[in-house]
């Protein structure tokens, strides 16, 4: 117990020191006060507002009436699709994380922990137990924060209380939290018993079973998309490990069964206790096993800060391929040449690769199934929105290698605009080519509106550029690691709140009025044009100021 107290005291001292660092500059507190005020405005306004409630609609009564008429309402399928779609995303995350555990080691530690704790007179088991339990705190805080933000603007319409939102965040946190111990358990058992092949087969089998659980009811239904989520969206799927348990907790506002929440939360803690006990029993003296993974994780952080060069072979399909790349010129064009060489090693072609071919092929399959009336057009629209979201995330991760702070970027004899353009030129070309190859055949196969072609291409470019600019601002504009951790999420929420939400709201309004998805996408593009322009201007302005600071020494 004394060893656990020592570890806890160490973390408390680190927390106090970081708080003192923030208090030295009170201006840093303004973004957080704004966020607290924003949440308070939406959540506490409903307590002073008159309760003019619309008559509540009981979905069970609708379903009973529809069954009596032998008709299934569209709202029922919409609800089924929403629950099934979110469940499918969670299942995809679970399968991906389990598969990733067979490829990459997991570590709860930093190099500072290695240097301090691994040399201290604390038993390995106590260190491991403490850090595995402590890992729930940031996950729990982030999940509750996400739920608060996601529901703040609609709290008056759906009538949720803060307690319900916190409970939903707790369900999300339990799911994310359990992934880390499970991955560490796989790593531990493989280190001692070499069970990696069995785990891979199990993960593949689980993915195949879940795939069949959507295909079989879809084929049996009159329309494929009516039956594809019939099993995974049904109430019995709440008993599926992790995903179903968390779904039952998150959906508490709909079923209001507190005993169901308590039961699944108890199961979570029991499973965590079993996993923790298994890890401690089989880990032994795990110091040497986690050193390599801890070091690789630390190197990734240094690449984000610009202290270390990114490895060109990272995620490369042709790392050892012999290249014959022509000379593109001098000055800022060297940045484009460098990205071109790196992209040539990542895939079979620098402009369009295997990953893009897979995404495009999946879109063609959806379009073909829509053509034969197995899928609804809504499935394609949902897939296109997911791709736009993925490219926004990809834009946020583009400059994580810290190239913008490298001496060669600062000393290149060219204008800042030329450097910035050549830095993102290849990305824009890749995004443009991918979007055109994907959307043009999809539109013609599924017989969609031709306006969707330019709208989708522009949306892909704008969301990618906005994500790139957002990460550029945070990575270049903030030097302290604590500021990166705290201010970056606040800045992202600000951009989402005042940039993305109005743009998406404009598109949604246009879609409701016109009943045309293409028009809604054009509305989103109009709103995002301003957001992307402002973000790119701020990013380039910050880069130029950082350059001046570097020159001033």
Automatic annotation (TrEMBL):
InterPro entries: Put_ABC_export (IPR031584). It comes from the Bacteria. Keywords: Membrane, Transmembrane, Transmembrane helix. The chain crosses the membrane at residues 29-45, 76-99, 128-150, 162-182, 202-221, 228-252, 258-287, 352-372, 378-397, 428-446, 452-478, 490-513, 519-539. This is ABC exporter domain-containing protein. The lineage of its organism: Bacteria, Pseudomonadati, Bacteroidota, Cytophagia, Cytophagales.
């Amino acid at each position: 117990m004394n060893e656990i107290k020592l570890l806890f005291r160490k973390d408390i001292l680190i927390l106090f020191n970081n708080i003192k660092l923030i208090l030295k500059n009170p201006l840093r507190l303004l973004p957080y006060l704004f966020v607290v005020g924003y949440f308070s405005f939406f959540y506490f306004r409903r307590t002073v507002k008159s309760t003019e409630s619309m008559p509540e609609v009981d979905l069970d009564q609708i379903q009973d009436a529809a069954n009596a008429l032998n008709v299934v309402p569209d709202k029922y399928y919409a609800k089924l699709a929403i629950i099934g779609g979110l469940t499918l995303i969670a299942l995809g995350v679970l399968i991906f994380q389990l598969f990733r555990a067979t490829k990459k080691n997991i570590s709860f530690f930093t190099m500072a922990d290695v240097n301090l704790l691994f040399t201290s007179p604390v038993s390995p088991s106590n260190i491991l137990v403490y850090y595995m339990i402590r890992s729930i705190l940031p996950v729990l805080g982030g999940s509750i924060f996400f739920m608060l933000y996601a529901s703040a603007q609609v709290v008056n319409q759906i009538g949720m209380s803060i307690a319900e939102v916190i409970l939903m965040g707790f369900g999300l946190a339990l799911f994310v939290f359990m992934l880390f111990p499970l991955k560490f358990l796989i790593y531990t058992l493989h280190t001692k018993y070499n069970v990696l092949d069995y785990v891979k087969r199990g993960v593949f089998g689980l993915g195949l079973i879940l795939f069949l659980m959507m295909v079989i009811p879809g084929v049996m239904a009159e329309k494929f998309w009516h039956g594809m989520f019939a099993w995974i969206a049904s109430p019995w799927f709440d008993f599926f490990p992790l995903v179903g348990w968390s779904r039952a907790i998150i959906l508490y506002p709909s079923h209001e069964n507190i005993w169901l929440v308590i039961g699944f939360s108890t199961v979570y803690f029991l499973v965590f206790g079993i996993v923790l006990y298994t890890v401690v029993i089989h880990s032994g003296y795990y110091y040497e096993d986690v050193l390599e993974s801890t070091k690789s994780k630390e190197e990734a952080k240094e690449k984000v800060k610009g202290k270390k060069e990114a490895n060109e072979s990272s995620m490369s399909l042709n790392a050892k391929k012999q290249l014959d790349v022509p000379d593109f010129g001098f000055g800022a064009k060297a940045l484009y040449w460098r990205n071109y060489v790196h992209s040539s090693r990542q895939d079979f072609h620098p402009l369009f690769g295997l990953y893009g071919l897979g995404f495009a092929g999946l879109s063609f399959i959806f379009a073909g199934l829509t053509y034969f009336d197995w899928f609804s057009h809504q499935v394609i629209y949902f897939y296109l929105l997911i791709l736009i979201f993925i490219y926004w995330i990809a834009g946020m991760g583009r400059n994580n290698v810290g190239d913008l702070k490298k001496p060669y970027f600062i000393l290149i004899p060219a204008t800042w605009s030329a450097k910035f353009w050549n830095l993102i030129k290849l990305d824009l070309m890749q995004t443009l080519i991918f979007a055109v190859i994907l959307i043009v055949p999809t539109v013609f196969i599924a017989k969609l509106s031709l306006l969707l072609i330019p709208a989708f291409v522009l949306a892909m470019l704008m969301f990618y550029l906005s994500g790139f600019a957002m990460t550029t601002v945070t990575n270049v504009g903030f030097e302290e690691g604590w500021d990166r951790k705290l201010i970056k999420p606040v800045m992202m929420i600000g951009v989402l709140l005042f940039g993305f939400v109005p743009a998406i709201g404009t598109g949604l309004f246009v879609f409701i009025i016109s009943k045309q998805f293409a028009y809604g996408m054009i509305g989103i593009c109009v709103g995002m044009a301003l957001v992307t322009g402002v973000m790119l201007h701020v990013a380039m302005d910050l880069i130029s100021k950082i350059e001046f600071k570097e020159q001033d020494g």
